[in-house]
């Protein structure tokens, strides 16, 4: 049976700690945990440094029981951390694959579709079933798996826009930011019963162009101005 030493004042709770008198652990729980991580079949004897006696003494039965409980907690924590790290690696791999796929998508207008009618947002509410072209600023931006929802704003009003398929997956779309200036092409459709949006309609986008991309990250508009602020404040920031 091996022996491990614990000294709270100078010990170090690391898996690389030797556990000797010269290089002791800080806590009994971690000493047991480190021993088990090294696949030691038998539980080591633990010796705790007693300041009042200035020497190492074998751990008491009650302290050993407490150390075993603490060791179980450390093992559960290690398992959880390993699972989280695995999930993180899987997420990073998925994101890398998604980005690679997004880079291969090119956004092109389908020339077989009817010519889009250029219109203001407010006027588009009455053009249900027609293909229109509206320009404005991205007021809200939300991703829902393979669908992107955009609330577009111009001087006349707001309209909810839906990007799906390759439009939602393209790198150009993933790079969109709030207050970016865009021109959207698509068909005006009436909202399903029970759904609400400005004008009672939404724009099913089939193509779009980026006129000007607003800054993202620390320089983004949302870091300077609260969402829902008066559009004139946003105008001052452009």
Automatic annotation (TrEMBL):
Residues in domain Asparagine--tRNA ligase N-terminal?
Answer: 20-114
Q: Which residues form the signal peptide?
A: none
Tell me the keywords, alphabetical order.
Aminoacyl-tRNA synthetase, Coiled coil, Cytoplasm, Ligase, Protein biosynthesis
* Domain OB stretches: 132-211
Question: What's the domain of life for this entry?
Answer: Eukaryota
Q: Does the record bear Protein biosynthesis in its keywords?
A: yes
Keyword Manganese carried by entry: no
> What cellular component GO annotations does this protein have?
cytoplasm
**Where does this polypeptide localize?**
Cytoplasm
Q: What GO MF terms are annotated?
A: asparagine-tRNA ligase activity; ATP binding; nucleic acid binding
Supply the InterPro entries for this chain. AsnRS_N (IPR048952), NA-bd_OB-fold (IPR012340), NA-bd_OB_tRNA (IPR004365)
Q: Which Pfam families match?
A: AsnRS_N (PF20917), tRNA_anti-codon (PF01336)
Where does the record place a coiled coil? 64-106
Instruction: List the GO biological process terms.
Output: asparaginyl-tRNA aminoacylation
| PANTHER family assigned to the protein according to its UniProt record, in alphabetical order | ASPARAGINE--TRNA LIGASE, CYTOPLASMIC (PTHR22594:SF16), ASPARTYL/LYSYL-TRNA SYNTHETASE (PTHR22594)
Name this protein carries in UniProt: YHR019Cp-like protein
Q: What is the organism field in this record?
A: Saccharomyces cerevisiae (strain AWRI1631)
